[in-house]
Amino acid sequence: MVMEVKDKFKPEPSVNVIAVYAGKGASHSWLWFVDLFEKYSIYPRFLDEVSVNDLRETSTLIVPGGDPVSLARAVGKKGLESMRKFVHRGGRYVGSCAGAYLPLRTSLSPLSHFNMVNLRIRNIGEKSDDNVKSYTPYGERCIIHPFRGDVIVRLDGQSMRAPVFGGPIFEWSDEVKILGVYEKVTEATQLFMDEGRVIELISGYPAVVRAETGRGDMLLMGPHLEYPGCDVGNRWLISWIGKNDPPCEDYESTSQSSFLKFREVCGDLLVVSGSFVSLPAMWRIGVKAWEPEKLQYFALSIWKRVKKMKDCDTAIYPFEEISSSLERVIHGAKEIKRNLKMKRDTAPLAEEMFDEILSATRKFMENYFLWKRIEDERKKA
């Protein structure tokens, strides 16, 4: 039986500085948070595996989907300890998919360096189970992925559609507050198990939970409530995260010519990524599959915002630096295409290219949200 669950949120901090982790181990799904925050005129910061070591200026930390083991390995013991201290002193942690797995208690290194929430998951099993068709290795066992796509979730008393792409199905526990539960599959759910077993696995079990740790709060989500088009989930998530009013970032002046050069390189990347989509390839980086079309996803995310900027004379990261990074991405994509034709191994090239586009996109988004905040404030003046 599905229970209706509600929660009373703590008051928002007077200044809510939101930071999104967009470093190694994160997939392209952190860009869904970019879309969400732009939609609600929120101006986040973006962190990589180094800058996450210093969360003193952060109020809310977002950890998106990806590969939790690769993420923990990239951040390292020091970074995980920084995140632990951040929550204990009163910070708010929002984990989606991989970000929801990350804080769960485990003896598996390097995840064991975080270990903040004593909560079990239902979608864990044995690799020898013939019924398990989609899974991720997890020590001697595996994380089972029984389905993919839209399911019905009951959250805060209302039912909504929300996509799941490998996120956890939690067991019931008295140690956390259950905010939302899985109800049922939909016609858009891609099943990797017998439907009856999938329904038994998810129906009525926790999808979204809240854990109070130290003075802080942790929101862990199996479904991607930040997903574009998941309007009810988007509104609910924003109500939990809250608005923000961070201090304006320091920035430096940049020449118009460097921005125009950057636009030109972005246009080149868009063309190259478009021709990349149809490549007959797939690369496993960590435990995540990276398909050729994900390059275009990053390129389009940058391009649609570059077109809005028209001109820009402010930057946190110089546009020359981001242009050089994108040129390396373009070169890498061309090298991959050449090597595929010659039937050579392209996995190392792909990993390098996706690391580069992740870094360049993160730096661009820092500049974009700085520009957007300045423009929004000018319009209000």
Protein architecture, described:
This protein is of the alpha+beta class and 381 residues long. The protein folds into 2 domains: 18-241, Class I glutamine amidotransferase (GATase) domain (Rossmann fold); 252-380, Single alpha-helices involved in coiled-coils or other helix-helix interfaces, CATH 1.20.5. The chain has helices spanning 30-39, 68-88, 98-101, 195-202, 231-241, 256-276, 293-309, 319-341, 347-380, and strands at 18-21, 45-47, 60-63, 92-96, 124-125, 135-138, 141-144, 147-155, 158-164, 177-185, 190-191, 206-213, 216-221, 252-253, 283-285, 288-290, 314-315. A hairpin with a 2-residue loop joins β15 (283-285) and β16. α6 runs antiparallel to α7, α6 runs parallel beside α8 and α7 packs parallel to α9 (347-380). The chain is globular. Mean pLDDT is 92; it is low at 1-12.
